[in-house]
Amino acid sequence: MGSILETTEVSSANVTTSANNGGGMKDSSHPYFLHPSDSPGMNLVNTNFDGRSYGGWRRSILIALSAKNKVGFIDGTCLAPSSETPDFKLWNRCNDMVISWLLNSLSREIGESVIYSKTAKHLWDDLEDRFGQSNGAKMYHLQKELSDLVQGSSNIAGYFTKIKRLWDELDTLNTHVNCSCECSCGGKMKMSKSLQDERLIKFLMGLNDTYASVKSSILMLSPLPTVGHAYSLLMQDEKQREVYVNSQFPGDSSSFMAANQSHPSQKFGNSDFQGKKNNLSCSYCKKHGHSVDKCYRIIGFPADFKFTRSKKFQAPVKNNAAYFDSEVGEQSIVNGSNGSQQLTQSQVSQLVQLLQQVKGGQTVSSNSDVVANVANCA
C-alpha cells in the first residue's frame, strides 16, 4: 500500500515539474503560453492579404503576434527543441496555432500555396520572398499614386489618411529613411527636415482651392511647420466653415417659410375664413356658407367646380369668360365679378387674329370650341 502511494506521488511530481519547467503553461510571458481565448479559427487582421498592400498587412501581423508573444515562431528566435524533450509537444502546439492564424489572414488562393508549410517560419519566409522584396516597380506605383492624389470630394481627414498611408509604405521600402546611426554633424536632422518640407508642399498642393487662404498662411510661416501641424490648422478651418454654414441655415429656412406664408396657396380661392362661413346665408339660393354677392348661381361657377347634384343651376364660368357671335364675328369679353384676372396685350392680339380668321371664312364648330381656344390664350 505504501509503495503505491509513493509511486503516485513521484509521478505527480514529474508531471508538475515538466509543466512548470518545460512549457511555461502558467507563465503568460513564456512563448509557449496560450490564453484560453486563443483558437485556430482566430483572425489577427481585419482584411485578408490578397497580394496587394503587403507592407500594411505585414505590419498588422507583426503587431498582433507581438501582442501574443509569438513573433519568435516566424523570425527564428524560438527554435524547435529536441523531439525527445517534453517541450517539443508544447512548441509544436504553438507552432501549429501560429500557422493557423497566418492561414486565416490570407486569401484562399495564397493560403493554398503555403498550406503545406511545416513551420510558421517557413510559411513566413515564403511570403517574404514572394511579396516582401523592395523593387522599383512597387516604388514607381507608390510615387505615381502620390503624384495623382488630390483632395477631390474627400474631407481633410480622409485626404490626409490616404497620403499618409502612401508615405508610410514608402518609408518601409526606403531603408535610409529609418537609419538609426548616431550623427554628430546634424546632417541626419537636416535630411529629415527637408523630407518633411517636401511632404508638406505635396500635401498642400493637393488641397482644393477653397483652402487657398489657409495654404498661404501656412506657407508664410518660418520655419515651415510639420505636416501634422498643418493638418491641425486645416482641421480648425474646416470646423469653422461647418459652424458658419450651420449658423446660416436657420436664417435661410425662416426666410423661406416667411416667403411661403406671404403667398398662400390659391386652392383656398376667394373663400372667407372658415369661422365666418358658418354664419353667412345667401338670400338668393337660400343656402348657408356664403353671401349673395358670392353666390355661384349668380356670378357663375368656377371652371374646376365639382357638382354633387344636377347642373341645372350652372351659370356661365367666371373669370374672363369670352363669347363670340358666329354670325357677325363680334367680340365680347366678360370679366368675372372679382376682376382678379386680366388679359395681357399679347393675349388680346391673339384674340384679334382669331377673330380675323373667323371673318375670313373659317367655320367655328361651336361656341364651346371658341371658348376653349380663348381659355388657352389666357
TrEMBL record:
Start and end residues of each stretch annotated as Disordered: 1-30
Source organism superkingdom = Eukaryota
Gene that encodes it: LOC107822148
User: Could you tell me where the Polar residues compositional bias lies?
Assistant: 1-20
Q: Which residues form the Retrotransposon gag domain?
A: 100-208
The Retrotransposon Copia-like N-terminal domain sits at 35-81
InterPro entries in UniProt: Copia-like_N (IPR029472), Retrotrans_gag_dom (IPR005162)
Q: What is this protein called?
A: Retrotransposon Copia-like N-terminal domain-containing protein
